[in-house]
UniProtKB/TrEMBL annotation:
Signal peptide annotation: 1-19
Species for this entry: Pseudomonas mosselii
Pfam families, A to Z: DUF2599
Residue segments, region Disordered: 162-185
Domain of life of the source: Bacteria
UniProt name for this protein: DUF2599 domain-containing protein
Keywords from the named record: Signal
C-alpha cells in the first residue's frame, strides 16, 4: 500500500482556533533564496554605511552569516551558558571565495545582512559584530574582550569542554581600550565594540599570520577586527591558504568563527528574532562537532527536522521565514534552495496580490486533539481595515483570503467539504468578534451554522469503525537516542480484538495509513507490531505502535515485547 510523503513531526502544539501568533509580514521565500544566493556569490570587499560612507566589515553587505545550533528545550536564537560567560555567540561566515563545506552542526539559521535589511525596510543589526577567526578559535572565557583576545601564554592543551569554565586570562594582551587599538577610520556605528587581537599582536597580513601561527592554531591564532575590510581580506587569504600546518583540521573546507556580542547577559536571545532571514540544513551530513560547553557526547543528527523545529518555534513568536537547503555539492549560484515540501509553516505570498483586509496569512502544521493527527491550520491576521469591516464586508474578506491562499495545496487538496473554510471564517467573526487572529482549518467538515457555533467553530466528525474504538498520535522522547518519535495509541473494539490480524491491520491502515506520522522504519513494521500486540496482549486496554521501529520476524517481535 502506498505511504504518504515524508513530513516531519510537530514538536509543540498551536493553540485552538481562537488564538495564535500575530505574524509579521513574510517575505517571498523564493526571493529570499535568490537574495541569499546572490550574497553568497557576489564578492564585495568594500562594504560601507550608505548614509555616512563609513567602511564596514564584509558581513555588512556580502556573504552569508550563519549560526549552526542544536535543537532542544531552548530556542535556537537564545544564548548558551558558554556564550553568556563570554558575552558573545559564535557564527560562521561563508562566501564563494571561501572553500568552506564543513560546519559545526547540520542545521541553523541565517542572519539578514544589514544592507539587505535596509533595502527591505526590516530591522537593521548595526552593532554587535566583534571579530572573526580564520578557523574555529576555541573561544572561551579564557580569551579577553568577548572571546576576541588571546589565550594565556603557555595554554597549549587541546580545546576541550574544560575551557568553558572561567579561567585565568592574559589581560595584558588586551588593551584597556581595545577598539582604540584596533580601529576603522572613519569610525562607523560599531567602532566602539569591534576589536581584533591580530592588531595588538602585530599580525597585520596573511603572510604575518602564516609565519606566526605555524602550529597550535586553534588556541594560538589571533582574531581579525570585524569592521576592518583589510582584516576580512586577510582572513579569507589565510583560510584558503593557511600555510604549513601541523593540525589536520586547519584546511580550507573547515569553518571560520565570527563572534557577535550577546544582546543580554542572560539566555534570552529574543532580540535576534527580527534579524533571522531563514533556517538552513545540510542534507549531506549528520555531523555534530564537540564544542566547548557540551554536557553530553555529540550525536549525529538529521538537519531537516531540526530546521523545521526552528521554523515552528520562530513562527510561534510571530515570524514566518523559510527553511532552506544548504548543499555544498551544488554550484555556488544554487548553493541555497527552497523546497516547498521542507516547510512546516507557509511563508510568503503567491503572486502580486493587493491586500486590503488581510495583514498576513500563513500555514502551520499542528497536532489536532480531535482528529489525533497533524493538520494544517491557516493562521490569518486581519488588517486594521479587515477588523473594521469584518461584519459588513465578510465576503470581500473571504475572497481576498481565497485569492491569497486558496491555491495552496494545504487548502486546495485538503478542504474536506466545499464551504468549510468560509463557514469557519463566518463563525469566528460572528462568535468571537474581538479576536485579532483567526485560525481556520481545511480538514474540518461543513456543518450547520448552529453545529459550528456549538463546536466553538471547530467542528469535527470522527471516522466510525467497527473494529477500532479510537486511535490517536502523540509524541514522546526516545530514552535511548533522545530523538522525538511518533506513537499511535490504538484502542480496539471487542470485534477488533477477535478479528483476523489482516482484517484489523487493513482497518487501521484505512483510518491512519495516510497520516503524515505513518512513516515506517521498514515496510511492514506497523503490521508486525499490530499482529504481535493482538496475538500476545489481546486483553490489554490499549496498544501502542511506533512507525520508526524496524521490521523483524513475528518470533523476534514477541521476544522483544512487540517493541523491536
Amino acid at each position: 500500500m502506498p505511504r504518504p510523503p515524508l513530513v516531519l513531526a510537530l514538536l509543540f502544539n498551536l493553540p485552538s482556533a481562537h488564538a495564535g501568533p500575530t505574524i509579521t509580514d513574510a517575505l517571498d521565500p523564493q526571493q529570499t533564496t535568490d537574495r541569499i544566493n546572490r550574497n553568497y556569490t557576489h564578492v564585495v570587499d568594500a562594504c560601507a554605511e550608505p548614509d555616512t560612507g563609513a567602511p564596514r566589515g564584509h558581513y555588512y553587505c556580502s556573504g552569508v552569516t550563519l549560526r549552526m545550533v542544536d535543537d532542544g528545550t531552548f530556542n535556537p536564537w537564545d544564548y548558551s551558558p558558554t556564550a553568556q560567560k563570554i558575552g558573545a555567540s559564535s557564527y560562521s561566515w561563508i562566501r564563494k571565495d571561501l572553500s568552506t563545506s564543513k560546519l559545526v552542526r547540520p542545521a541553523g539559521f541565517i542572519l539578514r545582512t544589514p544592507m539587505d535589511a535596509r533595502a527591505l525596510d526590516r530591522p537593521v543589526m548595526e552593532t554587535g559584530a566583534l571579530c572573526i577567526f580564520s578557523f574555529d578559535g576555541c573561544t572561551s572565557p579564557k580569551r579577553g574582550w568577548y572571546g576576541c583576545g588571546m589565550y594565556p601564554s603557555g595554554d597549549t592543551a587541546a580545546c576541550s569542554a574544560q575551557d568553558a569554565a572561567p579561567g585565568v586570562r592574559d589581560d595584558s594582551r588586551v588593551p584597556a581600550s581595545p577598539p582604540a587599538q584596533s580601529a576603522t577610520l572613519p569610525a562607523n556605528r560599531n567602532s566602539a565594540l569591534a576589536f581584533g587581537s591580530c592588531d595588538t599582536e602585530q599580525v597585520d597580513s596573511a603572510d604575518a599570520w602564516r609565519k606566526r601561527f605555524a602550529g597550535g592554531v586553534q588556541k594560538g591564532q589571533c582574531s581579525w577586527n570585524a569592521e576592518q575590510p583589510t582584516d576580512w581580506q586577510a582572513m579569507v587569504q589565510t583560510h584558503q591558504n593557511p600555510g604549513s600546518q601541523r593540525e589536520a583540521w586547519i584546511t580550507p573546507d573547515q569553518f571560520n568563527e565570527f563572534l557577535i556580542r550577546t544582546a543580554s547577559d542572560t539566555a534570552d536571545g529574543s532580540a535576534n528574532m527580527k534579524y533571522i532571514d531563514a533556517f538552513i540544513y545540510n542534507p549531506n551530513t549528520t555531523f555534530v562537532a564537540s564544542t566547548i560547553g557540551d554536557t553530553k557526547p555529540a550525536t549525529p543528527t538529521n538537519g531537516l527536522p531540526v530546521a523545521q523545529s526552528f521554523q515552528r518555534k520562530l513562527f510561534a513568536q510571530g515570524y514566518a521565514v523559510p527553511v532552506l537547503r544548504l548543499d555544498f555539492n551544488q554550484p555556488p549560484q544554487y548553493r541555497f534552495s527552497y523546497l516547498a515540501e521542507d516547510q512546516v509553516v507557509s511563508v510568503g505570498v503567491n503572486g502580486a496580490i493587493e491586500l486590503r483586509y488581510i495583514q498576513a496569512a500563513n500555514w502551520a502544521l499542528r497536532l489536532d486533539p480531535g482528529s489525533g493527527r497533524q493538520e494544517w491550520t491557516l493562521v490569518v491576521v486581519p488588517s486594521t481595515l479587515g477588523k473594521q469591516k469584518q461584519a459588513s464586508d465578510q465576503q470581500a474578506i473571504y475572497d481576498e483570503l481565497f485569492r491569497l491562499r486558496g491555491n495552496d495545496p494545504q487548502w486546495r487538496d485538503h478542504e474536506s467539504s466545499i464551504g468549510s473554510m468560509r463557514q469557519q471564517l463566518a463563525c469566528l467573526i460572528g462568535n468571537y468578534p474581538a479576536k485579532t487572529v483567526w485560525n481556520i482549518e481545511p480538514f474540518r467538515p461543513k456543518v450547520s451554522d448552529a453545529e459550528a457555533t456549538k463546536a466553538g467553530c471547530n467542528p469535527y466528525t470522527p471516522a466510525s469503525s467497527a473494529l477500532i474504538a479510537s486511535s490517536s498520535w502523540s509524541q514522546f522522547t526516545d530514552t535511548a537516542t533522545g530523538d522525538r518519535r511518533w506513537g499511535l495509541r490504538v484502542i480496539p473494539s471487542s470485534a477488533g480484538r477477535s478479528a483476523s490480524n489482516e482484517a484489523l491491520y487493513q482497518e487501521l491502515f484505512r483510518l491512519r495509513g495516510n497520516d503524515l506520522e505513518w512513516q515506517e522504519g521498514g515496510e511492514g513494521s506497523m503490521r508486525v507490531q499490530l499482529a504481535c500486540l493482538q496475538n500476545n496482549y489481546r486483553t490489554k486496554a490499549d496498544w501502542n505502535l511506533e512507525p520508526y521501529r524496524r521490521v523483524v520476524s513475528d518470533a523476534q517481535a514477541k521476544a522483544l515485547g512487540c517493541n523491536p
